[in-house]
Amino acid sequence: MDKKIFDMGDIDIAWCPGCGNFGILNILKQTLAELEIPPEKLVLVSGIGQAAKMPHYLRTNIFNGLHGRSLPAATAIKAVNPELTVIAESGDGCTYGEGGNHFIHAIRRNPNITNIVHNNMVYGLTKGQASPTSQAGFKTPVQVDGVMVEPFNPIAVAVALDASFVARAFVGDAPKAKEIFKKAILHKGYALVDIFQPCVSFNKVNNYQWFKEHTYYLEESYDPHDRNQAFKRATEKDKLPLGVFYINPNKSTFEENVGVYNQNKEPLYRRELDRLKPLQNLIDSRRKA
Ligand SMILES: Cc1ncc(C[n+]2csc(CCOP(=O)(O)OP(=O)(O)O)c2C)c(N)n1
Ligand code: SF4
Ligand SMILES: [Mg+2]
Questions:
Q1: Cβ–Cβ < 8 Å for 80, 267
Q2: Which of 56, 97, 133, 261 has its CA 20 to 30 A from that of 282?
């Protein structure tokens, strides 16, 4: 499949020249094309932010929800139609800050979706305030003396919660990022890909060079099925590892467990609903009372 199938044609893109989001858009299109996932079988779900604009720039089904709310919408879409490939994507602020509670509970529910988090360590859209992943000491117009606390570590949290797939990528290395995206999309269960993405306008510290110098790839011999080892690697600080940290292939998914599929495996979207029946039952029960 040609990745052009996802092109929107001649549209205005609101990102700054040089923004890492362009790379993620391109890598995602390439990944989807190589996996032969047609636009009509895909749904992209986002929240609010620069990263969350990405579904507007890709020709497919999209749902652009509230800030921090990509994951519950994506979970529901997948549950209603499990035949779709569902990708929730948004920024570090949207996913780990405003949506932090959803992040934790999506991991517990384990819907079969992919969660791509554009991690630029800043609130880009609102012009450069600290996000949960901003490094300690990072100065902004709001945090004028520098961020006082240690950054949120999404990889360690996901491993601690026994997420079924946990990975980190860097947009500056498209071939490797594409391989990680592929593994995440093919994985059955909730798959987190935190992808480092420089914000060239509002984060002058964590730029392309910084990410190159402060990251390295997990070795070929690394075993992602060892949770203790994954947690150890996730908490490394000097250099931040990239690659697939952790896989738990033995978890059942939200769609498999949710009550509406206990007796009837027919996808919800295909079922005929008599919308008036519950109301009529209620009226009848009151009449009898
Ligand atoms: C509930 C709520 N709180 C705050 C905002 C304002 N707001 C919009 S985008 C944003 C930050 C987005 O940061 P991030 O998710 O990291 O995305 P980026 O722009 O960096 O890609 C904030 C605070 C909002 N729209 N809704
Ligand atoms: S403000 Fe930052 S994240 Fe937003 S488009 Fe510009 S470079 Fe990208
Ligand atoms: Mg951000």
A1: yes
A2: 261
Name the amino acid, one letter, at 94.
C
**pLDDT (tens digit, 9 = 90+) per residue, 28-79?**
999 999 999 999 999 999 999 999 999 999 999 999 999 999 999 999 999 9
Q: Which two tokens stand for residue 110?
A: 């384990």
Ligand lying closest to the C-alpha of residue 51 = 1
* C-beta 90 within 6 A of ligand 2: no
Look at the chain and count its residues: 289
What the chain holds in terms of domains, given with CATH numbers, is: 3-288 (3.40.50.970)
The answer to whether 256 and 267 are in contact (CB under 8 A) is no
The alpha carbon of 182 and the centre of ligand 1 are apart by a number of angstroms equal to: 27
Question: From CA 183, how far away is CA 27, in angstroms rounded?
Answer: 13
Query: What is d(CA 242, CA 171) in angstroms, rounded to the nearest whole number?
Result: 11
pTM for this prediction? 0.95
**Is 120's C-beta closer than 6 angstroms to any atom of ligand 2?**
yes
| Residue 173 near ligand 1, beta carbon < 6 Å | no
Residue 201 CB less than 6 A away from ligand 2:
yes
Q: CA 265 to CA 245: how far, in whole Å?
A: 33
Residue nearest ligand 1's atom 13 by CA: 123
* Rg of the chain on CA atoms, in Å: 20
Which ligand 1 atom lies nearest to the CA of residue 47? Answer: 15
Instruction: Kindly report, residue by residue over 246-284, the tens digit of the pLDDT.
Output: 999 999 999 999 999 999 999 999 998 788 888 899 999
